[in-house]
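Technical annex, item 7. During the second reporting period the consortium partners agreed on a shared format for inverse folding records so that results from different sites could be compared directly. Each record opens with the tokenized structure and is followed by the designed sequence. A conforming record, contributed by the partner at site C, is shown below for reference.
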């Protein structure tokens, strides 16, 4: 009869449960994977598959009982690490959404909104288009594979242990939100400046020819100029999305090293 000791069972549970907590923390906040349209069962099964693939490469786990207070603290720490890594990538979509909101407002499309089931909020149609482009760029550059590779790398740079999180890593995460927002403003800057020039020209036209109904001709002109600039700048937008993903994955590595 085969028998197992309590210490062996605790070691086997720790080898699977603690890495699973980090993986599920990432799936809870990462783009696409945290979508509410994906059933929770699918997310848990995906997390288990990823954990089974990663677990053999991990070193020995801390000699701590899984059900003890110290074991629960390690579990909470792993969830926080995974959630922090996913939040870095989630901030990227916040930067793209910021750029879309700024551009849509300047083009006069601020009223053109639709319901986003992922965020459970209303968003402008232009923001939806830009976020879709960013998502397609993510999969085109194999970002999903890079995401899982970065997750596996965190277990080498940040192994499962009983120590707490460093405040430097949390500060790095908070500062990275500002970096990505700066990228979003930079992406929207060329079109925003174009819309400002168009609005100034329309203002001068209304002063030179007061009999013109500037409200009836202003909207088609600003909308047409915005669509033309978006069409001309589409290749640059795609390159900007590619650079944003590189910045985001660099942020994942830095936050993992600082936590």
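Designed sequence (site C submission):
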């Amino acid at each position: 009869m085969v028998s197992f000791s309590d210490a062996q069972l605790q070691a086997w549970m720790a080898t699977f449960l603690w890495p699973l907590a980090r993986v599920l923390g990432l799936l809870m906040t990462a783009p696409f994977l945290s979508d509410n349209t994906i059933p929770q069962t699918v997310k848990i099964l995906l997390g288990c598959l990823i954990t089974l693939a990663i677990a053999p490469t991990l070193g020995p786990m801390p000699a701590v009982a899984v059900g003890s207070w110290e074991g629960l603290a390690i579990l909470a720490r792993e969830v926080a690490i995974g959630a922090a890594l996913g939040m870095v990538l989630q901030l990227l979509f916040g930067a793209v959404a910021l750029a879309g909101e700024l551009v849509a407002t300047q083009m006069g499309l601020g009223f053109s909104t639709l319901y986003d089931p992922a965020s459970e909020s209303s968003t402008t149609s232009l923001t939806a288009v830009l976020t879709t482009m960013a998502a397609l760029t993510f999969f085109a550059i194999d970002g999903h594979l890079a995401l899982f590779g970065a997750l596996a790398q965190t277990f080498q740079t940040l192994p499962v242990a009983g120590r707490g999180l460093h405040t430097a890593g949390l500060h790095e995460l908070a500062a990275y939100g500002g970096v990505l927002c700066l990228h979003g403003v930079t992406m929207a800057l060329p079109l925003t400046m174009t819309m400002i020039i168009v609005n100034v020209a329309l203002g001068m036209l209304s002063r030179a020819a007061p009999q013109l109904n500037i409200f009836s001709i202003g909207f088609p002109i600003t909308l047409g100029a915005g669509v033309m600039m978006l069409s001309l700048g589409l290749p640059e937008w795609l390159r900007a999305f590619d650079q944003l993903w590189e910045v985001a994955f660099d942020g994942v590595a830095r936050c993992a090293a600082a936590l």
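The beta strands are 113-116, 121-124. The mean pLDDT is 77. All partners now use this format for quarterly exchanges.
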